[in-house]
Amino acid sequence: MKKLIKIILKYPLKFVNYIYTYFYYKNNKIGKDYSIDDMLIKGEKILVLSPHVDDETIGLGATLLKHKKIGNQMSLVYMTDGGGSTTDTSREELISIRKSEGEKVKEAYGFKNLYFLDEIDGKLNPDKRDLINNIVNILELEKPTIIYTPFLLDGHRDHVGTTKALISALKIWDKDFEKIYMYEVNLPIIPQLVNSISKMEEEDYIKKGEIYNIFTSQWAMGFDVFR
Description:
Layout: H1 2-26, H2 36-39, E1 45-50, H3 55-69, E2 73-80, H4 91-109, E3 113-119, H5 129-142, E4 146-150, H6 157-173, E5 180-183, H7 202-212
Parallel strand pairs: 1-2, 1-4, 2-3, 4-5
C-alpha cells in the first residue's frame, strides 16, 4: 500500500510541476541568483509557517540550524492540528502526540515562540477569515523580517493553502513585504529548471537527522518519497 501511495502521488504531480515550472522560468526575465547565505544575516527575525509538525524540518531544517547558530530570533507557526495522519491511533491522541513533538521541535531549533492554529489536518481553507486574521495577529506580534512558507506547487493541499493564506494576510499587514522564501516538502523542484546547491555542515546534517527522530507518529510514508 505504501508503495502504491508513492506511485499515485509522485508521477502525476511531478509531471504537472515540470510543465508549469518549465514555462514559468522560461518566461521569467528576472534572472536573479539567490543563495542561502543571503538570508543568513545576524539580526533577522524569522517566522516559519509549517502546515504540519515535521514540514519545517523536512523543508528547511539545516537553514533553521544556521539561523540558530548566528543568534537570529525565530518563531514557528503550525497551521493544522496534525490529526490526519495514517495511523491506528485515535485522532485526539494523535493531535496530542504531534503537539508534543512540536514542543520538542521548538526546543531543538531554539524557537522563541510556538503557535498552534489547529486547522483541521487535510482541510485547511486558505480563504477562512479567522485563519487569515490569526496570521495577521501573529505578524503583528512577531514583526518578522524573513518569512518561510511552503512552495506554491506543493503536492499537499494544506501546504499550498498555508502559503495562500499567508499571501492574504500580508495584503492586510504589509502588502510590500518582500522577504518571503518558499521551501520544498512534497514536490521536487525540477533540478534542470531550478537548481540550488548550498553547503550543509556535517554537524547540521547530523543534527537534522536527530530531529527527524522526534517524529515518531509519522510512519506511513518515508521523508524521501519524492526523491
